[in-house]
Amino acid sequence: MKKQICIVGSGTSGLQLAYALKEDFVVTVIHASSAEKIRSGRVMSTQVHFGTTRARESRFHMPKWDDSNPLKSIHITIGTQKLFTGMLKEDALSVDQRLYYSACMNDLESNGVTFRQFKLTTEYLEQLVDDYDLVIDCTGKSGPLFPFPIISELSPFDMPQRKCITGYFLGIKPNVPLGVNVTVLPETGEMFEIPAVTEQGPVTILFIMAVPDKELDTFKGVKDHIEFTMQMKQSVQKFFPEIYRRMNIEEFALTDENAFLQVAINPEIRKPYLTFNDKLIVGCGDSVFLNDPITGQGCNLSSYCAEQLYETLIDYKHDKWDENLGETYWDRTKEYVKEVTEWTNAMTQPLPQHVVQLLMNGAKNQEQADRIAEWFADPKSAHEAFFQKQGSN
Ligand SMILES: Cc1cc2nc3c(=O)[nH]c(=O)nc-3n(C[C@H](O)[C@H](O)[C@H](O)COP(=O)(O)OP(=O)(O)OC[C@H]3O[C@@H](n4cnc5c(N)ncnc54)[C@H](O)[C@@H]3O)c2cc1C
């Protein structure tokens, strides 16, 4: 008989796991909102799925998106000085999670995965754990539901390092070659401009990461979409003149009234398994590996860990599911989690001098510019540049 797995949460990690596991196990997904409510609701995030994540999506036969205009590059500006455009080795793609999640949920349901809609609370955990061979906590940044232990050396902050302010907009002429446009305003914050695929077609995400209480932190108390759009226009005009020049003021508008978000994240890394009522429980994605969005790694790390968890469960398919399985999963993921986390945490602080020098070198040398673009697709190389071979990457 196939083992029964319950995945709590239908985000990036929960959905990829459901696709990966559905052939070998009986999979149930518990989700707080219906696919329709997600599709027509508030944006949840920004996202860039790099080459390795897209390869995993293909491997697990996840839905394909319009990739006629893929992201090919990373543009880097410091202050108002454009440094370079680095080319990615593989195309990346950003698909609005409202579209992505709802399409995956409907597709999975029509392919034999059971969906149960309710917001799980801790009082039902014992019952749930009894009912399945394994529960996987994929509850994202609002989780975890289970008390996975915090790893203090990878969780150095006790408050968010940035305020995340993001909206999906029409009326911005895309940069060329199409790619993610990163502007760093030292000690003030960053802007990520991300061309994205949405239900309304191609749009531009403007994502401000403001250092709390510094000049960019100007969206306090902004609640409605009209006020948000006005404030974004003013901020872009004042701090990001190059983007402002590509803005068509008449057409500049949110794609819909729900296309904006303000949130602040306190990064926290946890050991992703524990025993609860004598059963193994594992966590995947933001519920256990929650980083600041500043390096755009959340979806990619969630996808990486989901694949590692899948491989581990397949290896243990006919064995007992206990702490050994949990430890194997953690052994397979911990190095990558550590590299992503240390790099991401470093990016929230003033950049070390040798990293500033690497960025400056990128302005003079296209190979160096391409290497820096690849930091985002291959965070191991970013970690190396920041911490190991200083000055050589
Ligand atoms: C503003 C912002 C910008 C970001 N930008 C990027 C970026 O550019 N690139 C990138 O890779 N990542 C980015 N991220 C991070 C990325 O969105 C997350 O890392 C990724 O979505 C995590 O996937 P997940 O499955 O762990 O959680 P989620 O995608 O958050 O999914 C969790 C799911 O669990 C459900 N859930 C939660 N609790 C319960 C419960 N009790 N019962 C039932 N269901 C529950 C939720 O409804 C949700 O559907 C950003 C995040 C934010 C907030």
Question: What would you note in describing this structure?
Answer:
The chain has 393 residues and is α/β, with parallel strands linked by helices. It has two domains: 4-47 and 95-157 and 266-347, FAD/NAD(P)-binding domain (3-Layer(bba) Sandwich); 163-263, D-Amino Acid Oxidase, Chain A, domain 2 (2-Layer Sandwich). Helices cover 36% and strands 24% of the residues. The chain has twelve helices and 16 strands. It has helices at 12-21, 35-40, 51-59, 97-109, 125-131, 225-239, 241-245, 298-315, 323-347, 353-364, 366-377, 379-388, and strands spanning 4-8, 26-31, 71-78, 81-92, 114-117, 134-137, 163-170, 179-185, 189-198, 201-210, 253-254, 260-264, 268-269, 273-276, 279-283, 289-290. The strands form three sheets. Strands 3, 4, 7, 8, 9, 10, 11 and 12 form an eight-stranded mixed beta sheet that branches. It has a six-stranded mixed beta sheet with strand order 5-2-1-6-15-14, with helices on both faces. It has a two-stranded antiparallel ribbon with strand order 13-16. A hairpin with a 2-residue loop joins strand 14 and strand 15. The relative contact order is 0.17. Flavin-adenine dinucleotide (FAD) binds at residues 8-14, 30-33, 45-48, 119-120, 138-143, 145, 164, 166, 261, 263, 285-287, 293, 296-300, 302.
